[in-house]
Amino acid sequence: MMMSKVRAALLCYRYYAAVPLLLCLPGSWLYAMERLAVPVMLMKALTDVLIWYFITATAPHRLFYYYNLHVSRWFLFATFLITDLFIFRVLLWLTALTFPAPTN
Amino acid sequence: MAHSAYVSGSDQLIAEQVFVSIGQREILKGVTISATRGSITGLLGRNGSGKSTMLQAVFGTRRAAECSVFVNGIKIDTPYTRHGLINYLPQQRFLPPSLTVQTVMKQFGADLNVALHWFPELADVSRLRISELSGGTERLVSVVLLLLGRSRFVLLDEPFSHIMPLHVARLQQLMQEQKLHKGIIITDHMYAPLLDICDNIYLMKEGHTVFIRDREDLILHGYLSSL
Question: Can you tell me the distance from the alpha carbon of B212 to that of B69, in angstroms, rounded to the nearest whole number?
Fold first, then answer.
């Protein structure tokens, strides 16, 4: 039952993933310039909150698909945030491997 | 299965004392409504009378100042999060455009063969994505999906909108059959099909529900013209 909720919540993330994934690029670039992982992650989390607010404010009816699969609003948001931050963290790790740390 | 924990002889959902305000405006002023397996409850009302608000409050997605939902006497908080308990058809499109018809049917546990038995036309579109369907076909898929899905109660907000008369008639038959398995509440402005299939009809008026016996009552309460 829990797995079906997670699958439904991940489906929700996939549906809205384009914009948050696009925002990973400037975030990774910032990280490549300055190795400030925590502020960059916080900034990404803030953009996720804004995107979620935009989704719930402009097209709340689209979320009824997931509500009908018995996934709560908070679970959808938490999955959205955690999945996106996880992908972003992996991207930062790849950035650190690819680009050497800037020397002052 | 958790689903069976709720099942009893007469499956009944009652929403009592539903109070909802938006800003200073009181939309619902202590409404009570019920859905029982074996019957269809109809909800009529003018635009803005609070029909959709009522259904969403019962479903659990609309914040209400007060709303107590009981299933077979047991109080349920946020009913929509309970597995297999309740589904709600919103007025707007809600199916993810990228999924195919057969995928959404599978996710809701709806038998595609049963859907095709009632609506053979869906065979042509079952492999198509939702984004490739016409508005009417998407609406039909949405209604059939929730009627055949795994839930004990279903709240349908304007299920006949955008659907052609032939399919409306078949949907009426499907609802009559499905009411044996689940409690159904329907709201729609197409009052004639509702009067045909509903066992109980209520009119939302000034934040309250009024029991309706026949078409004459709808005229009396100003919902229909007497002409």
Answer: 23
Please give the domain boundaries of chain B with CATH numbers for all domains: 11-220 (3.40.50.300)
Kindly report, residue by residue over B152-189, the tens digit of the pLDDT: 999 999 999 999 999 999 999 999 999 999 999 999 99
Its domain, for residue A70, covers 2-98
A-chain residue closest to B56, CA distance: A64
The residues near A46 (Cβ < 8 Å, ≥ 6 apart) are none
Residue A75 lies in a domain: yes
Alpha helices in B1-108 (DSSP H): 2-6, 51-59, 101-107
Structure tokens that stand for A58 in this block? 């402009």
pLDDT band at residue B214 using 50, 70 and 90 as cut-offs: confident
Q: Which of A66, A84, A90 is nearest to A6 (CA)?
A: A66
**Residue of B8, B34, B18, B28 whose CA lies nearest to B184:** B34
pLDDT at B9: 63
pLDDT recorded at residue A100: 80
Backbone angles phi, psi at B70, to 5 degrees: -120, 135
- What does the H/E/C string look like for B184-217? EEEECCCHHHHHHHCCEEEEEECCEEEEECCHHH
Count other Cβ atoms within 10 Å, centred on residue B40.
24
Tell me whether residue A7 is in a domain.
yes
- Measured CA angle at A73 (ends B72, A10), to 5 deg: 115
Task: Using DSSP, state whether A85 is helix, strand or coil.
Answer: helix
Q: Which of B82, B85, B94 sits opposite A65 (nearest CB)?
A: B94
Could you tell me if B143 and B193 are in contact, meaning their C-beta atoms sit under 8 angstroms apart? no
Measure Cα distances from B226 to B148, B215, B222 in Å: 38, 10, 9
What is the Cα–Cα distance from A91 to A97, expressed in whole angstroms?
10
Nearest to B82 among A64, A65, A70 (CB): A70
Taking 70 as the threshold, does the pLDDT of residue B60 lie above it? yes
The HSE-up count of residue B60 (CA atoms within 13 Å, CB side) is 20
Contact B98 A73 (CB under 8 A): no
